[in-house]
């Protein structure tokens, strides 16, 4: 019987919130993906851990017993990860959900004050980026969001804010416009990012339902689909510099959401190399003179 640390974290999130939707948001999972993780834990332990009704979720006696065991197991895992990372003080692995100027600016500043550091960069895309941070594959993670914040199990810092652009095929009727309004955007055929098999929510929540025609696991995939004329996408405006593509156009959105780039790391990671990198990330710049957004 193998139960992963991630599955125990899923169990603890539901046990704490007693609400699958709230726990899924906290873990950056879809409710269906979280439900499957809980079913796996119940199947592998051979015990029902929750009483579920249409109105409530409650721990069973077995669930109450597992809470304390799971907390100890997760804490022990985190201690091992922290100990391992403390031995690797001159190497830093950075994960990117979407490459962008937020990351490039921070790395450029960090290299001037961390000359002995060996840098590794992993392009993670939209799928399982937070899992890579959670399991220690990467030390830090850059993500971009227009609403909400990264999962609260991590310590996160806002490092850049910018407007959004509409990514369109080069031949699209809106491609040559100087700017568009959100009212013109929401009715278009969309190429949406996916995470754990479901569309990532948050970028355009509150603007009405989207007509999602295709899904992409990375922004490069989204660009290829846009270039083929299969739909549009919304992205941070810095992609105009970082992702030039002959088959697409980037049109400013006048009244669209603002995109925030976040730098996240594990809350229990107290290594000096991570702390130094965070300090470099939070140094004031013209793009983001006021910093300090942090959650743990």
CATH H-level superfamily title of the largest domain: Periplasmic binding protein-like II
Report the total helices. 10
Shape: globular
CATH architecture of the largest domain: 3-Layer(aba) Sandwich
Q: According to CATH, what is the class of the largest domain?
A: Alpha Beta
What value does the Rg take, in angstroms?
21 Å
Determine the mean pLDDT. 85
> What's the helical proportion of residues?
25-40%
The CATH topology name of the largest domain reads: D-Maltodextrin-Binding Protein, domain 2
Question: What is the beta-strand fraction?
Answer: 15-25%
Task: List the uncertain runs.
Answer: 196-201, 287-294
Terminal Cα separation, in Å? Answer: 32 Å
Largest sheet: 6 strands, mixed
Protein described:
This protein is α+β, with helices and mostly antiparallel strands. The chain has 3 domains: about 5-85, Winged helix-like DNA-binding domain superfamily/Winged helix DNA-binding domain (Arc Repressor Mutant, subunit A, Orthogonal Bundle); about 90-160 and about 260-290, Periplasmic binding protein-like II (D-Maltodextrin-Binding Protein, domain 2, 3-Layer(aba) Sandwich), CATH 3.40.190.10; about 165-250, Periplasmic binding protein-like II (D-Maltodextrin-Binding Protein, domain 2), CATH 3.40.190.10. Helix content is about 35%, strand content about 25%. It is built from 10 helices and 14 strands. It has helices at about 5-15, 20-25, 30-45, 60-85, 100-115, 130-135, 180-185, 220-225, 240, 270-280; strands at about 50, 55-60, 90-95, 120-125, 140-145, 155-160, 165-170, 190-195, 200, 210-215, 235, 250, 260-265, 295. The strands form 4 sheets. Strands 4-3-5-13-6-14 form a 6-stranded mixed sheet. Helix 2 (about 20-25) packs across helix 3 (about 30-45). The longest helix is centred in the first third of the chain and has 26 residues, at about 60-85. The protein is globular and about 60 Å long. The two termini are about 30 Å apart.
